[in-house]
């Protein structure tokens, strides 16, 4: 993306709602703020959406309004950072020009109406990170709004207030962008890293989390520890469920983010495991940022630029295959160095927050839509956020305020 003669090619309005999950959205905001700092865009945080009359969007679905100063075009984009591949913010999808989805699993698109399908585009990877001064810029806008909407409609808003405070706490603890980054020329130890979480069955799924996710992760940790001994680093995060069911596999690390990053950056090889709800974890993006050699199951989601098995990672489907892939990378120095270099290049081109958002802003105008925003085709079997009755969005003076980011 080339800047125009007077500094910016794009003017970006980013919708901010105090009820959003700023932990999930941290990397989107970090990329936009970095582009603003570099003089690549003019950014405005706004409390009013580009489309009126929408139902409440999920807290991980920001809206962007992007204007191209060179052509005079303006487009609206939605970014769906949710964990579920088959779930869409349907009202937002009907009213935007392009819908970027993090977990875009092609078979799940069959439930999207034909007239809307072309709007759905892959977003790519996400993970939590912060640009400089991001905390101050977000908090100065979010906290007053959060208190306002909670006090104005306490019966409606207070039940979710504690959860929003938890999201803010996670956001505040997110590390800076550069904390993950490590070039492939940095010396590392010839060891294997795998740090995973197990948890009780969540309410949002009927699937057997213990059998589909927890037990396979525990078996993988046990096999890696047995095979690589002192060349293995990691284990299960020390939470209550892990201590009760897998006490022998608890990680030596407390689970603090800074300890996790430091351990991951030590290891030559980093392992990722599948998730029960077909979601992409933050791990792969973090591994790419640190230029790790990656061993993981075949990646099922559509990406703006594909990860290639044998180039960016070595795929596995069984525990034995994982062990073999890790051993191969530890033994083959040339293969390991080449993979580290390729993953660093992939990170810089497609994952680094500012570059990722710069690519996305250009794609807003490249993506084609098969129908115009505002055309509402009949509902299909698509799963919607917040199924059932929708609470009416309160209209406040905050809703019409917009603030330029400086």
- Compute the gyration radius: what is it? 22 Å
Give me the strand/helix succession. EHEEEEHEHEHHHEHEHHEHEEHHHEE
Please describe the biggest sheet, giving its number of strands, its sense, and whether it closes into a barrel. Answer: 7 strands, mixed
- The count of β-strands is 14
* Mean of residue pLDDT values: 84
Q: What general outline do the C-alpha atoms trace? A: globular
Q: Pairing-aware structural class of the strands and helices? A: alpha/beta
The poorly predicted ranges are 2-6, 368-406
Q: Considering DSSP H and I runs of 4 or more, what fraction of the residues is helical? A: 25-40%
Strand-residue proportion: 15-25%
> What count of structural domains?
2
Strands of the widest sheet, in order across it, are: 7-6-4-3-1-2-14
Distance between the termini: 21 Å
Number of helices: 13
Keywords summarizing the entry:
406 residues, alpha/beta, Rossmann fold, 7-stranded mixed β-sheet, 5-stranded parallel β-sheet, 13 helices, 14 strands, disordered N terminus
Describe the structure.
36% of the residues lie in helices and 16% in strands. The chain has helices at 26-37, 90-95, 114-117, 134-152, 154-157, 161-173, 209-228, 240-245, 257-266, 283-289, 319-331, 333-351, 353-366; strands at residues 10-15, 41-46, 63-68, 74-80, 87-88, 98-101, 120-122, 189-196, 232-236, 267-271, 293-296, 313-315, 383-384, 402-404. The strands form 3 sheets. It has a 7-stranded mixed sheet. The chain is globular. It has 406 residues and is an alpha/beta fold. It is built from 13 helices and 14 strands. It has 2 domains: 10-175 and 354-404, no CATH class; 182-351, Glycogen Phosphorylase B (Rossmann fold).
């Amino acid at each position: 993306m080339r800047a125009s003669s007077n500094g910016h090619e794009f003017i970006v309005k980013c919708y901010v709602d105090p009820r959003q999950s700023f932990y999930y959205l941290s990397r989107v905001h970090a990329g936009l703020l970095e582009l603003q700092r570099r003089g690549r865009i003019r950014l405005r945080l706004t409390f009013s959406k580009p489309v009126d009359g929408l139902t409440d969007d999920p807290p991980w679905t920001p809206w962007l309004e992007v204007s191209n100063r060179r052509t005079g075009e303006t487009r609206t984009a939605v970014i769906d950072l949710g964990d579920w591949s088959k779930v869409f913010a349907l009202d937002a999808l009907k009213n935007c020009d392009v819908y970027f989805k993090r977990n875009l699993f092609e078979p799940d698109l069959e439930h999207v109406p034909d007239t809307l399908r072309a709007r759905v585009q892959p977003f790519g990877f996400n993970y939590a990170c912060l640009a400089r001064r991001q905390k101050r810029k977000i908090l100065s806008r979010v906290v007053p709004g959060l208190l306002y909407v909670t006090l104005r409609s306490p019966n409606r808003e207070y039940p979710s207030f504690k959860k929003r405070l938890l999201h803010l706490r996670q956001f505040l603890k997110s590390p800076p962008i550069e904390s993950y980054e490590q070039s492939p020329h940095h010396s590392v130890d010839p060891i294997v890293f795998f740090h995973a979480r197990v948890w009780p069955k969540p309410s949002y799924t009927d699937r057997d989390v213990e059998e589909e996710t927890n037990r396979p992760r525990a078996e993988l940790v046990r096999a890696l520890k047995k095979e690589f001994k002192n060349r293995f680093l990691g284990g299960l995060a020390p939470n209550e469920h892990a201590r009760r069911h897998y006490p022998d596999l608890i990680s030596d690390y407390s689970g603090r983010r800074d300890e996790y990053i430091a351990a991951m950056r030590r290891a030559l090889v980093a392992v990722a495991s599948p998730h029960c709800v077909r979601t992409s974890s933050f791990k792969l993006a973090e591994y790419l940022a640190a230029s790790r050699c990656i061993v993981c199951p075949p990646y099922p989601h559509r990406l703006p630029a594909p990860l290639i098995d044998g180039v960016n990672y070595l795929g596995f489907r069984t525990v034995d295959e994982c062990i073999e892939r890790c051993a191969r990378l530890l033994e083959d120095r040339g293969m390991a160095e080449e993979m580290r270099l390729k993953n660093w290049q992939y990170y810089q081109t497609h994952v680094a927050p500012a570059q990722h958002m710069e690519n996305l802003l250009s794609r807003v105008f490249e993506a084609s839509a098969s129908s115009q925003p505002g055309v509402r085709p009949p509902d299909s079997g698509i799963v919607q956020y917040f199924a059932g009755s929708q609470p009416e969005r309160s209209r406040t003076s905050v809703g019409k305020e917009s603030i330029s980011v400086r």
